[in-house]
Amino acid sequence: MEQMVSFACPVCGENLTQEGSSFRCPAGHSFDRARSGYVNLLLPDGKHAKLPGDNCQMVNARREFLEKGFYRPMADALCRELVGELDGKNALVLLDAGCGEGYYTRLVYDALTSNGLSTRLLGLDISKFAAEKAAKRFRLEEPVRIAAASIFHMPVADESCDAVMTLFAPFCREEFCRVLKKGGLFAMVIPGERHLFGLKQAIYDHPYLNEVQDYPIEGMEFLRSVPVDDTITLHDGEIMSLFMMTPYYYKTSAEGQQRAADLTELTTETSFQILLYRKN
């Protein structure tokens, strides 16, 4: 029976323990782990669509793009910040809320463990396609569990996490505060004002800057913002992989999509802000 790291039952909230390929709670609710390694904890009444979250096309495009290292400078900066803030923690529990296909999840886990930080990791994404890809990045014997679940109803026990990270995912302050221990670390990555502005210039008649929200979060102490800016040049299929992994693709006219498809080279800014907080 595996009790090293686990989720909470989405039905009753009791702790889930793993028995073979199933996750069970004391009340008898059971959830089977898929062959790829993830467990579906998204209840039918918690879905807003038949297949919520990123579809298979978006997940594959994101995986193809990220694996080429275009966003690696931001990922490395995030890893440095987390290692520095969590140094000295013993058997820490990290939650990746909105883990996507697991690119950042894997890098952060490796960075923490290679720096001597014993880490138990939970990853959540509402897309079962993303959760499946993320689970495949980890070996079954590693203390990592990936589930399909909503950030707005996370199957995670109260005050059970030493750290929570979320990258480009929906924001739910109440849930993040609920699952974090007192003094726990919260790390959020958001796009900067000019993130992908070159792409917008190529496909829109009137490109716009991203809106950057104010930093304060009720119930958390703001520590600092770490900007990570870069310029990348993409060619041919790399351009469409980037375009298709963003919400822009599904909000752009057919004319705009064709403009992107016709591009053979694109140079664009990337701009990120890593925001760090500590729960009061």
Poorly predicted tracts of residues: none
Average the pLDDT over all residues and give the rounded result.
93
Number of DSSP strands? 11
How much of the polypeptide forms β-strand, as a percent range? Answer: 25-35%
> Radius of gyration over alpha carbons?
19 Å
- Profile the largest sheet: 8 strands, mixed
Number of helices: 9
Walk me through what this model shows.
This protein has helices at residues 56-66, 72-86, 103-114, 128-135, 173-179, 197-203, 237-244, 248-251, 254-262, and strands spanning 17-19, 22-24, 30-32, 39-40, 92-97, 119-125, 144-148, 161-167, 180-191, 220-235, 265-279. With 280 residues, the protein is an alpha/beta fold. The strands form two sheets. Strands 4-7-6-5-8-9-11-10 form an eight-stranded mixed β-sheet, with helices on both faces. A three-stranded antiparallel β-sheet has the order 1-2-3, with no helix packed on it. Helix 2 packs across helix 3 (103-114). It starts with 16 loop residues before the first strand and ends with a strand. The model has no long low-confidence stretch (mean pLDDT 93).
